[in-house]
Amino acid sequence: MEEIEGYTVVPLRMSSDALHCHSVYMREHFIRLMDPNKPKGRTLFLLNIPPYVTEESLKGFFKRAGNVESVQFAAKPGKDETIKWYEGTNEPFSNVRPPFIFKVAYVVFQKSSSIGKALAVPSIDLFHSSGESTIKTGMELWHEESPNIWPTTTEESERAALAAKNSEADADGWVTVGKEGRNAGFEQKESVIGRLEKKRENDTKTKELKNFYTFQIRESKMQNIVEMRKKFEGG
Amino acid sequence: MGKIKKIQRKGPPATKRPPKAARTESTDSALGLDAHSDLEKPATSSDDGFEEPTPKPKPSKKTTTLPEPVSIIAQKKNKFRTDDAKNVKPPTLEEMKELRDTRNLFHSNLFKLQVKEMLEELQLKTKYTEYIDNWMESFTVFTQRLKDGLVEKSQLEVPLNVDKKISGFIFSKPTKEPQLIGAASTGTLLGPKIVVDVALEMPKDCLHKDDYLNLIYDQKRALYLTYVTNQMRSDPAYSQDKFAFNYHGNNPLKPVLELTPAAKHVSKHLQLRLFITAPQSTFKPGRFVPWNNNIRPTYYNDEWDEEEALPSTQHYNASVLFDLTLAQNQALLDKAFKGRRNFQDGLLLLKVWLRQRELDRGFTGFGSHILASFIVYLNQQRILHQSSSSYQVARTVWNQLANTDWTNGITLAPASGQTEQLSTIAGYYDVCFMDVSGQLNLCANVPLGVYQRVRAEAKLAVDLLNDMKLNSFPYIFMQKCPLYTRVDNILKITNYSSIQQMLVLHSKPQMKYDFASYGYPQLLQILTELLQKGLKQRVQAILPIETVSSAWPVESKAPIIGQAIQLGLILDPEHAYEVLDKGPSSNDDPEGSAEFRKFWGEKSNLRRFQDGSITEAVVWGTTKDAPSKKRLIVRQIVMHLLEHHLQLDSKDIQYIAAELDLVYQLSPWFKVSKVKTKLELQQDTDAEALSPNVIRCYDDLARQLHALDDLPLEIVSISSISPVSRYCEPMPVLPQARMMADHIHASHIQRVIIQLGQSGKWPNELSALRALKTAFLIEIGEKLKAQCRLNWSITSEGLLVLKRGFCFLLELAHNKELALLKQEVTERGVTKYVDNPESRALEQRHYILPKVSGALHSLHQSHSAYGPTVLIAKRWLATQLLDDGIWPPMATELLVAHLYQQRNAPQAIAAPQTGFMRLLHLLAHSDWNGELFLLNFNSSWQEQQIGDLEHSFRSDRQSYPPLALATSYDQQHAGRLWTTGESPSLRILSHVSRLARHALEMIETSLQSKDLRFVRPAQLFRGSSEGYDLVIQLKSDLVPNALSYDLGSPFVSFDQPNYLLPRAGKDPLAAIVHQLRSAYSDYAAFFYNPHGGKELAIMWRPPAVFAPKAFKVTELQACTLCDKGKVQVVRETLVEDFKVLLKDFYLRISTPEELKREQREHQNPKRYFNAKPQDNESCSKSKKRKLAKAAKVQAPLKRKSLIKSRPLKSLS
């Protein structure tokens, strides 16, 4: 078993006779500010996961070390990286997919004893005993993807989505007050606020004489020169 | 023009800004901004910032002369300093003047700076001027040492081909000193090859008064040259130099000595040419007037009727006069140019302009000495003022060129000097510009076509200068526009016997005497007259394309030139493709009718037309013919005329037109008869001819959609955004989409964007909105099925609809979706709308692309060559293994549109092939870093906006992608919408430039060569196999072939093609390559031909990427552990990854060399990666079989193809 800077290095094999394999670097996940989704003592941290590896395939493999609660990916180690990774992918009717790049993985086991077992595996084998890979690539992948990508029927999810909007009082008895209703207030948009601020500015501004005093005329001429310089020399 | 390098935009030199100087009363009055300055008027000699004709007091001087108000300024200065110390500095008089003039003369300072910088770069280095001066000195001494004597047979050949040679020429030493002439004398030498012309005058003693007759003068001139050359060669001062003879201006009567000095520091760029002239008083003044004959018919042993007047030899006379009047003309030019930097610079600008257009070449060229004389002429006429700036000189010359007509003659000679009637002289020539002596026509050899071309170019230059929305500098000076890219078709006759046949049988004897039996101008005249008469308004101009004769060593015999001719035809797209030539009515004009019949021969038939008239007419095709066929009508006519009138066989002629149009034709492998459709399809159809079918079908669909009943919301607009709708789809789209087992299969999908009427009831949440959109699409689909009986299916992208064998993908566009995508909530709870890549893509697809599509469609309507040009360009890029992922297809379309929209040539392009060559030029020579390609459709952008954009582009170049494109519809994203930093990346962009340069080289060589045919499409449209590290060969039966004409892959030879229909909108190969790029682009680049390419070429990134490096958690991607605690990326591992991702698709992996070797040896191809010797054959085979089995289960639709694949492979 090779080790480097506290990481256990194991090859990731796609078939039983694979010669050139990627190295996966693993260790127990430990940082000061723990993420509740990656509980201390039960989470295995893996570096350098090839892009085509899926959550299911890792979950399937690490079952041998104990029951796996979840597998999460991220582009790099860090606090909110996992959230960023999955951003937009869980929404219905969205075509967003997680990026297809080398990534890191967090395997959360149900028992902390599984970590040691997991760190002792000689290699991560992502193929069945029959030799077939547990990851779908190539022709399989592109033929499987069916045009109906949404799980529920369209109408149902539509209804669900619409229902989410017209929310009544929630469990604690709070009602979300939106822009509907009698006293909705103005919309908190940048453009609206900007317009209001501009209006106020205009109101406060007194009417002033612009081309009256000699110094004003001189200054406007000056301004003219500045503009000409900017146009013909600046840039 | 290697010399004119990219002109970097520089700020104004620091010295220009004068020190804080007095702000006097006069500055205030100067601020009055009386902005009137007529550019054409010479009287307002305003300074535009160029070198002043008169020295100007230096600003520093100025401050010293006005010392008084200093105390006042001191206060004021402080006041201004508080504002903005940099910009609000009191202006000086000079600065005010300069600023104001800049504003009046130029739209922007940029043009001025660019011109100034170019002129600076064109200035001759002192080492050359010094060398020339020294050389002249020593040469003068040399000529004085020459001795008189009889010229014996020297070892040098006399550089002249004449029938009857004279003997006993007695050399007498020159009495006058040799002189610099031409550019060297006027101080307007232009690089990169600096040619210094020196004239040596033969003394009168050498010539007799009868020598004017029958080329004796020319022979003596040549003998004199030979003698001087001989003497120079034996002189130690010159013996090291390289001697060669050449013809001046492709004129075989004007041999000159070309001397390349041996001196190291100049020999690369400097060349000296020695002309021999004769004093003007040698012959009687009236001897060489145009109507005199100076070559007798008897000289050529021809009979001539004694009674008849001898034929005039005006062109020959002009050739002699050129020598005789040279000294006088040069004196005039010297007087005008010496010491006037402004005139010299003006001429330099004009010379650059002319040379970029290649109009000054060869016998018929519009030489720059004509321009120099014209400047003098304008000065004489008081149109150009002595103190006009160089810019004004150039501008006035263009303006006057465009607006005057020289066919009636203009003259430099003073009223007393012009003895003969100008109009009489003009009658003998096409174009007439008399010199100062009033005898020589400077434009004697310039044919009307070339002159008209120069005028058109000059007019364009003025228009470009006047166009406020454009920085015209690159178009006028920087862009190289060789003639062949400006003509639509090229006629090339190089066959020796055909040329002789034309000269002997069809040239009039008078022409032979006139040109002293020089073949070229005779051929030119014969062909131009014939073609002009036959093509009439189909052709706008017929231009000679000359190649400059090459020098020959002095020991060898002078070559005979003019034995080949190349003509360029500029077509008038409005008339060129008419299928009918109608003659005069046979009843009203029987004579004209007979003549018409005689002219056209058997092609002409008596026809009765619908309006009842009966006339002779020639029919070249039917109106229903495909556009590509119609484009060949002119070729048909030319071929017929040449055969009928000049008895030239089509195999002796090369007519270069539409050779490259082949690439978008339907592949001959695909049999059209197999497509079930009601449309009439031809086997030899092409993508261009098929597009209207799709567009018609789309129109029908749009009508049906509009007519749908009971939709909850009305359909407001429907627009198509597919390339087909703007004639830019290079693959022939055939109506073969169909429903198979609940799935629609189609080779292409046509994207259609639908907008619905307004409603306030759309949800405020993205997924809900998308859900509702999908529901809407399903509703539309169901209604289409019920009301119009069209099949549909829903996908994640939109609604697929099948109609008449075409497949459409309908998408709903909604404003709210865009807003929701952009929406961001700040910490203060304020909603903000910010662009992000996703929203930008959506906006482009749903809102901008429909508009641009419409604009491009209308561009195609006005320029019918636009579409086909794009087709050729897209095919070319595809065959160079550049797919959509690395070169966005819209970039191609917009660049071609840019070519058609920008008026960088006086005539619009009529032939797609020419359009493609111009695109190659654009790709090869563009300064990507400095240029933003703006397509101002409908001129909807204002000057101010354009100015702002260009300003931001220049000052903030980094934030724009390497190739910046903007249209008038994408203002807020200008320059960033169509291209990104990755597609095309800087690397790809320079790669494309290189490819384009290579392609142009091939085209140019084939055009210039006498023997080569025009470049074959297969030479251009097959990528190179060099430079790639690995090639992954894909299974040929899994990748459908392109429907367009395939010219083969760079790696393997032809294989059995397949035309499987993929599932609509699915392109697995493209998807996999996209994956590969997103994961592995740091380590390798991937290339494939998106038009049915069956190989994936891979290029590794530089070795540094694969070097061992220290362990770092954040930089571990794809790294394997190696020695000493270091990690590294291993190529073999990556190859394994590629194999995993390309599972089922890849046949084997090898290097291109291996592949080539195998192809050559026709070996049994090895199945798997060769670099893996352990790979045991039986194992892989069994694995393969298993895979095939798996694929069969997974994809029942592919079963047929997979079974087919086995016998196929056993064949190979």
UniProtKB/TrEMBL annotation, chain A:
Read off the Pfam families from this record: RRM_Rrp7, RRP7
Which GO cellular component term is one of those annotated? CURI complex
What GO molecular functions are on record for this protein? nucleic acid binding
Q: What InterPro entries does the annotation carry?
A: Nucleotide-bd_a/b_plait_sf (IPR012677), RBD_domain_sf (IPR035979), RRM_Rrp7 (IPR040447), RRP7 (IPR040446), RRP7_C (IPR024326), Rrp7A_RRM (IPR034890)
Ribosomal RNA-processing protein 7 C-terminal domain mapped to chain residues:
154-233
* Taxonomy, superkingdom: Eukaryota
Domain Rrp7 RRM-like N-terminal as annotated: residue spans: 3-65
Gene Ontology BP terms: ribosomal small subunit assembly; rRNA processing
Q: Which family does it belong to?
A: Belongs to the RRP7 family.
Protein's name in the database: GL19088
Species for this entry: Drosophila persimilis
Q: Point out the gene that encodes the protein.
A: Dper\GL19088
